[in-house]
Amino acid sequence: MVTPVARTWFRYHGQTFRVAARYTFGESERMLDTGAVTRTRTAPALAALSVGTFAIGMTEFVITGLLPDIATDLRVSIPTAGLLISGYALSVVFGGPLVTSLLVARSRRPVLVGLLAFFVLGNVLSALATAYPLMLAGRVVAALGHGSFIGFATVVAGDLMPDRRSRAIGAMLAGLTLSTVAGVPLGTLLGQQFGWRATFWTMAGLGLIAALATALFVPDSRPARSTGQLGAFRNLELWLALALTACAFGAVYAPFTYVAPLMTDVAGFPVGALPWLLALFGTGLVLGNVIGARAADRWLMGTVVGASVAMLAVLLIFPVAARSPVPAAITLFVLGVVAYATVPGLTNRVLVAAGPDGQNLLASSAAVSAFNLGNAAGAYFGGRAIAAGWGYASTPLVGAGMEALALVLAAVLLARRSRSTLDRDLLDDRV
Predict the structure, then answer these.
(1) In this structure, are residues 379 and 253 in contact, taking their beta carbons and an 8 Å threshold?
(2) What is the pLDDT of residue 23?
(3) Which residue ranges traverse the bilayer (predicted)?
(4) Sign of the torsion angle spanned by Cα atoms 303, 308, 311, 317
């Protein structure tokens, strides 16, 4: 027997909040009412999720700085060791939606903790690896936890702040941006000083901390309805949103994958400058994430389109700016800002295309796959341009081509929504 919903109003730092509670025999369940999430519950929960994304982001990208050491230790070539990066990305692309489909009907907090445990196991396997196959297996296991964790965490974060969903998603994704600023440089330094295995042990420890924090601070929720989630993929608008995500964000990885030779061989920086240049780019990512999250809550597609236009301009300028150190460094920073200004909006755009309630976990996981597919595509096409003899300075132009395609997709998406729902995303509608 369930008692009627009890509502309570209270004051917190000058603002009024409403809490809705429903009680059963010896069991209480917290219900999310619009605008009714207390700050005391929201901040620790978002912080716990952000620690998880920090560990995941560090695991995905730190290996680039450790690749030569890993290749030497495991007695494989650099290109073969490079498959540890592409193999991870492909596991996220294809494994994330598969794992999510198996877990979609389960309560979210236990799923998040379990996925982090999977992530920890993958890093432990990598740290213990004495042969390349085991190392690759560890990367695949960690990647399977990656895509599904961010997919679930995106929906959970949005539930915590339903009236400011993009901002909540941005807060959750802040861990990814911070991993670029601090995690990757520190992980690389740790590996250089104590061996690459120490870095993987550290990432396993971070995953364990994230799992404990998630268990303690993230509110549990009832299982999502699995029926109808797959049906959203019959909607062309969802596929357009996923393609837009892949092209718009993947564009930055055409030059960023080759940022080391771009900044040293072309711009003229010494090799020792790379850590602070990467930190500079990462700082731009953090700033862009904050700006994009706040703006997307008011102008969803306006923010995506505006940031994409800015990124197109930066990518077109980059080949010229890369001829001199100072302009190259400034351009790298600005590229980070405009690149991550698109991320909260792109993620929310996918969720909105999948359903107005933002609860489609399969679509959320597919958005993570789209980001990683875009990253892989940008790296591949940038590499083809270099192999064709066009030089490292051509990679931003490859990214510009991908960004131009993203803007075409955005125009098609806006035109479809304008005809079907009279959406005013470019004006002042709240999503």
Answers:
(1) yes
(2) 31
(3) 45-63, 83-104, 111-134, 140-161, 168-186, 198-218, 238-260, 266-287, 299-322, 328-348, 360-381, 393-415
(4) negative
Condensed to tens digits (0 to 9), the pLDDT of residues 124-153 reads: 999 999 999 999 999 999 988 887 888 888
Q: Say what the pLDDT of residue 310 is.
A: 94
- Ramachandran quadrant class, 355 (left: phi over 0; alpha: psi -120 to 50; beta: rest): left
Indicate the DSSP class of residue 196: H
Cβ(299)–Cβ(313) under 8 Å?
Answer: no
Strand partners, 249: none
- Strand 27-31 with 6-12, pairing: unpaired
Cβ 279 vs Cβ 306: under 8 Å: no
Q: Which residues of the chain have pLDDT under 50?
A: 1-40, 422-431
The answer to whether the beta carbons of residues 29 and 22 sit under 8 Å apart is: yes
Which tens digits make up the pLDDT trace of 110-131?
A: 999 999 998 999 999 999 999 9
Q: What is the pLDDT of residue 430?
A: 46
Closest CA to 159 of 386, 371, 358: 358
Strand ranges (DSSP E) for 259-323? none
CA distance 423 to 407: 18
Nearest to 81 by CA among 139, 13, 128, 166: 139
User: If we measure between CA atoms, which residue out of 139, 114, 144 comes closest to residue 129?
Assistant: 139
Q: Are 243 and 349 in contact (CB under 8 A)?
A: no
